Amino acid sequence: MENEKNHIIPYRTLLYILVLLITLTLTSVAITQIYLGTLTVMLALLIAAIKSSFVLRYFMHLKFENKMFSFAVIAVALLLAVVIIITFLDYLYR
Amino acid sequence: MNTPPEIHRDDLASKTGMWFFLFTEMLLFGGLFIVYSIYRFRNGEAFHQAAQELNVAIGTINTIILLISSTTIAMSITAIQKKDKRLALLLLCVTIFLGLAFLVNKYFEWGEHIKEHIYPGSAILALRGQGDVLFYGLYFFMTGLHALHIIIGLVFIAVITVKIYRDKINPENYILLENSGLYWHLVDLIWIFLFPLFYLIT
Amino acid sequence: MSTPKDISEPSYLDYKGRYKGIFSWIFSTDHKRIALLYLFSILSFFAIGATLGLLMKFELIAPGKTIMTAQTYNAFFTLHGIIMIFAVVIPGLPAVFGNFLLPIMIGAKDVAFPRINLLSWYLYVAGVSLVLISQFTGQGPPDTGWTFYAPYSFRTSGNMLPAVFGAFVLGFSSILTGLNFLVTIHRMRAPGMTWLKMPLFPWTLYATGWVQLLATPIIGITLLMIVAERTLHIGFFDPTLGGDPLLYQHLFWTYSHPAVYIMILPAMGAISEIITTFSHKTIFGYKFMVVSALAIAFVGYFVWGHHMFTSGMSGTALYTFSLLTFLVAIPSAIKVFNWISTMHQGSLDLQTPFYWAIAFIFVFMIGGFSGLILGSLAANVHLHNTHFVVAHFHFIVFGGTGFAFFGAMHYWYPKITGKMYDPRWANIGLVLFFIGFITLYGPMFYLGFKGMPRRYYDYDEVFHAGNIISTMGSWVLYSGLAIIIINLFASLKNGIKAPSDPWGGKTLEWTIPSPPPVENFNEIPVISKGPYDYK
Predict the structure, then answer these.
(1) What number is the ipTM of this complex?
(2) Which domains does chain B have, with CATH numbers?
(3) Helix crossing, B175-199 with A11-33: angle to 10°?
(4) What pTM was computed for the model?
């Protein structure tokens, strides 16, 4: 059946998001030039996660879709995270 | 443009199918992130050192290239919805151009390493130590697989562009454009994570 | 609802479309024809795999060399495993019965993406072809076992690349089937068929679809890494380059354990359908059956380490995986309890499919209990890599998926072919098969417990008697199998015409003609009741 809403994202919004994403990218490059130990990687990944959420919510339209899509994306990411954590139960304690 | 009489079309099913396919891609690269995380844990210092040999400038430029290309393809959907066919075509051409630019950068980046005899299986790399072998193995494999997906994505987008030109994709029927956009954004998402993990862990 | 007497439309078997002859089959996007394409391919490859098994058992009838060298034996058990796992039991029930029945049982005319459905079958054929090609090219067939463990899989001179790549292609086929079924169930249920009015076979296909979608890519990437090891010496699993062979095992089993749930969940769904119909009573605990199917799929992701208890994992990993393995048994137990409760005080109709279902419960429980034994850490140290494991997985996979497959074959045979099978020969075949099955695999528990290793073509004289019994069991099993298959083929010609509803079933497939017309329903039904409305 047809698209129920046909929601249109304005060009302006998309360009604002782009500026935000580029800013975050440059921020992550700057931050990682400073030595912060293990925190460096954490911060870089955190910024990557924030960038991803903007791409997912605006570019990939998740903000305007049925919530089940967002739920599924989060569930898949969590699944991967849990698999990594369980694998680390081996490598951390050998 | 002729619309054939009442052909049952389920755009939501199409979109759902594409999202499900994206989940498989997330898990496919996910397997490599598992490998990366384990070997980084076991060879932290070596990974840290090897990362410094990567060119952060090119990496950042490539990141921004992909971000812009995601924007342009998202904008092309808005254009189609607003019945602006010319703008849509222009934006898609820009997207393709940016994707190709990414690949060209990658080609030169890889070329640099290969000139130094840094590539999977090289004896010189093996001499540098196990951490370096794993770092560069992961680097080539993951960016290589990513580049393959860029190529696939560019082929999709090219096909879509032709279809828009021929009005097969139009304001009443643009689910294929949306789905290509989703695929392209996924390629962007993967790079958003690859970039810090290889270039910024210095 | 379309009336059973609507014979004006040709059945899907008689339908004349764009293509003629064989092309009307191999270019068809009709889910029913694709199901039969899969059935034909799967039975053919099963025959190859079963013959390999028969020959392996013959080799093992006596210690030392009987009919083949050790290297040949290694190649045989490798191919036997690859074919049975990737080409028979993983596609098995979903590709054949899922394809045929899912749209009908939810009141749809086809699956969501019919052309992708046909592509899945093409990929399946391509994948198996690659695997078979690996036998005849290169420097000798693969000899690593179907598990392709590193580092041997990248050091052996056996012809790994086509086999590994074939498995990759087969994985892609599985992913597309799962994706198709998931979207079909989400979007194409008939009006009024809410989630909790959907029958249990579609529910298990739904749970299975998620496993196919989310687990298969992991083995996909792992196989690609093996290719990279063999061709580029990339070092991920090579200890001389810093890699960890154990990481290969983690990645491999992260898929291959959920894969066994791809094998068993649709089987359980089919058993639920059969037991309900032949008990003439609604399923006991419908909601628990739904939740347990989803729970099996979910928890099944997190138990993979129980294949690696003796590999050198940390203690923490050991007891975490053991605990999770015990947990995943619980939803399976709930299903068994509910099947029995359904039969209790039901009006039992003793037909061939029902006998298969009862036999399934018996062998599945033996397989399941032996799984709990293997899941216990201390016992596993003794039993890992012995014939106890071989017995366990044959009871639960061959016994589970296999018995359910044959039960489903007989249950849905009238619907698919429009004929009734000969019940006498069907039951004779079943009895022979069952006796052969127990005789073949039962002794392996004892042999394994006593220490006989698996994947060895030779053994100590002390294991001789058990092996003789087991091999003779393989002959009885094979004969039973032959009778079953021949009967099903013969009944195509000689069977009496089947009505729409020979069994008194209540799900939607029994409301349309046998065999069904191309578009299944004249009018999409409107659903107002639950799926098993017996009273």
Answers:
(1) 0.95
(2) 12-199 (1.20.120.80)
(3) 10
(4) 0.95
